[in-house]
């Protein structure tokens, strides 16, 4: 069971807390993924009706229990119990705002439950400052209860054992004990009070036990500060996973990579780089420094220096930047150079084409071995509609050429510097001027060879 029924008012956001982005994914998705990893027989999430948007991210197979009134975690647990299938013997309770739990944490908890058969097993950790977490109470070493932070008047010196992000219950005991849960002075029902009920229950084994976990597992996300702390931990985990898989990340502390990103071995990520969304980086590519890559695919042996890529696709051995901007719909073939201050949008670029610098290529199709001179602009918008420019193989576009779409430059076609091209350029043709007009092909400057020389 995953509890996600709280309204999350401390987040101060119109977006439900569970849907807040965390390293490129909704916060709740981390909890659901961890739950899926242990292959439970049944999956239930508890939601408030005000958070129906959460339904959009639930994977198949999850049932929903509705908590109409936010009366605490114990009340939320009671809403889910009627949905339990007959064959369920143990109930694992997770929280939708604890994204740092790992499958290893849960397997360790379940292993202890399997071995010791308690009524309640609580995943705990030790913190110097217990903050807002429930604190474990012991007597002669045995767990006797949990006291909530708002009810606790104890002054602590030294580390404190606190409730972390998971609790496992014996199903039969839970169904008998939950109706006996009393309302707290704050008006809520705390699931943690079940630990005290368990400790007082005659049981064949120790009725209430704790299982230790790393301190970060206790981090629940309640506000923006908590979210930033969780983000730092998740990104650190992502960087470690990638580096152990063969990716070079020069400075993980200044590199931000989403959990959804895939990077092949021998790629090198330079400092101050952001890679997000469904991006994929090929083997041997160098990204950054100061690059921003979102939802893009970058092939092997590419270099992206201080540039922005959004929903773009690069082939192999493509060089981009510095200070280029590839916008959505851009598709670049192998061995292309895109230099500084070039912007491409919804453009297809053929092999070995060069776009040196200071150019805008929008709604265009460039063939192979095309040269785009500095200052070239495809004028794709007539004030009402967008139009397409086609520049075919081996064309040479001179500096400061304005291509008034729709227009086509044929194979081997050329434009003179400063031309305004509003008519198609024939194959092998040369146009110059404003507006551009065809002129005779240039004579070869090289003297023809003479037989016998």
From TrEMBL:
Region of interest (N-acetyltransferase), ranges: 246-453
Name of the protein in its database record: Bifunctional protein GlmU
Subunit structure: Homotrimer.
Residue numbers annotated as active site: 357 (proton acceptor)
UniProt-annotated binding residues for acetyl-CoA: 374, 399, 417
Protein's pathway: Bacterial outer membrane biogenesis; LPS lipid A biosynthesis; Nucleotide-sugar biosynthesis; UDP-N-acetyl-alpha-D-glucosamine biosynthesis; N-acetyl-alpha-D-glucosamine 1-phosphate from alpha-D-glucosamine 6-phosphate (route II): step 2/2; Nucleotide-sugar biosynthesis; UDP-N-acetyl-alpha-D-glucosamine biosynthesis; UDP-N-acetyl-alpha-D-glucosamine from N-acetyl-alpha-D-glucosamine 1-phosphate: step 1/1
Organism annotation: Thermorudis peleae
Compartments it resides in: Cytoplasm
Location of the region described as Linker in the Swiss-Prot/TrEMBL record: 225-245
GO cellular component: cytoplasm; membrane
């Amino acid at each position: 069971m995953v509890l996600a029924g709280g309204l999350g008012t401390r987040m101060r956001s119109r977006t439900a807390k569970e849907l807040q982005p965390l390293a490129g994914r909704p916060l709740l998705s981390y909890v659901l993924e961890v739950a899926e990893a242990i292959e439970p027989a049944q999956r239930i999430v508890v939601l408030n009706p005000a958070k129906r948007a959460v339904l959009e991210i639930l994977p198949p197979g999850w049932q929903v229990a509705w908590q109409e009134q936010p009366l605490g975690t114990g009340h939320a647990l009671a809403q889910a119990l009627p949905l339990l299938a007959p064959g369920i013997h143990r109930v694992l309770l997770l929280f939708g705002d604890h994204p740092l739990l790992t499958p290893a944490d849960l397997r360790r908890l379940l292993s202890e439950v399997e071995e010791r058969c308690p009524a309640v097993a609580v995943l705990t950790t030790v913190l110097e400052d217990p903050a807002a977490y429930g604190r474990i109470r012991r007597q002669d070493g045995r767990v006797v209860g949990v006291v909530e932070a708002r009810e606790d008047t104890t002054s602590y010196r030294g580390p404190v054992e606190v409730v972390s992000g998971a609790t496992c219950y014996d199903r039969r005991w839970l169904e008998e004990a939950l109706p006996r849960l009393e309302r707290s002075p704050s008006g809520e029902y705390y699931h943690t009070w079940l630990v005290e009920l368990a400790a007082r229950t005659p049981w064949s084994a120790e009725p209430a036990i704790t299982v230790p976990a790393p301190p970060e597992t206790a981090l629940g996300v309640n506000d923006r500060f908590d979210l930033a702390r969780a983000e730092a931990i998740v990104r650190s985990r992502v960087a470690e996973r990638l580096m152990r898989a063969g990716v070079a990340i020069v400075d993980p502390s200044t590199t931000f990579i989403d959990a959804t990103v895939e990077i092949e071995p021998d790629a090198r990520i330079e400092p101050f780089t952001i890679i997000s969304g469904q991006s994929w980086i090929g083997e041997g590519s160098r990204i950054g420094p100061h690059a921003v890559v979102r939802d893009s695919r970058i092939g092997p042996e590419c270099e992206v220096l201080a540039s922005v890529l959004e929903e773009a696709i690069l082939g192999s051995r493509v060089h981009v930047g510095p200070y280029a901007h590839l916008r959505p719909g851009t598709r670049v073939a192998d061995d292309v150079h895109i230099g500084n201050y070039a912007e491409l949008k919804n453009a297809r670029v053929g092999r070995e084409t060069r776009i040196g610098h200071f150019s805008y290529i929008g709604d265009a199709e460039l063939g192979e071995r095309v040269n785009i001179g500095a200052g070239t602009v495809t004028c794709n918008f007539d004030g009402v509609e967008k139009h397409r420019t086609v520049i075919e193989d081996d064309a040479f576009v001179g500096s400061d050429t304005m291509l008034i779409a729709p227009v086509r430059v044929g194979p081997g076609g050329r434009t003179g510097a400063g031309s305004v091209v509003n008519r198609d350029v024939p194959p092998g043709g040369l146009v110059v001027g404003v507006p551009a007009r065809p002129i005779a092909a240039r004579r070869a400057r090289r003297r023809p060879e003479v037989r016998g020389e």
